[in-house]
Amino acid sequence: MSINLHIVLNNFRNDSRVLKETKSIASKYFDKIYIAALWEDGIDENELLDNKREVWRVRLRSRGLPKNLFFQVFKYFEWIIKIYIRFRKEPISVVHCHDLSALPVGALFKFLKKTKVIYDAHE
Fold it and tell me: What is the pLDDT of residue 123?
């Protein structure tokens, strides 16, 4: 089974580029595609886009903490760890990082699971 993981540090509400990209590759290259995003109030934590693509939004326990640099870094590391824990047992063949902030998660998969990583900066 070929599984692809896409990682974005946003709520994945209006990310048309990632939607188009995952739709295009789902039909040809992967059996399953997961999109890991950031949860916020008013959005479903899990969202099934179609029979191959699924969005999982990470709920941060630290979300209510202050927005100063120290706590933002703490929240960021919680996000990274939760994504790794959620997908570590899945047979992920490619991790697709859509911005610089997602790259450390990709690196974690690369070094701990020998997964291929794609860095696709949108900017």
Answer: 63
| pLDDT at position 65 over 80 | yes
- Provide, for the chain, the percentages of residues in helix, strand and coil under a 3-state DSSP scheme, each rounded to the nearest 5: 40, 25, 35
CB atoms within 10 A of CB 51: 8
Q: How many domains are there within the chain?
A: 1
Is the pLDDT reported for residue 113 higher than 80? yes
Q: Which residues contact 7 (CB under 8 A, 6 or more apart)?
A: 35, 36, 83, 95, 96, 97, 98, 102, 105, 106
Check if the beta carbon of residue 88 is closer than 8 Å to that of residue 108: no
Expressed as residue numbers, the domain containing 28 is 3-119
The CATH number of residue 102's host domain is 3.40.50.2000
Question: What does pTM read for this prediction?
Answer: 0.92
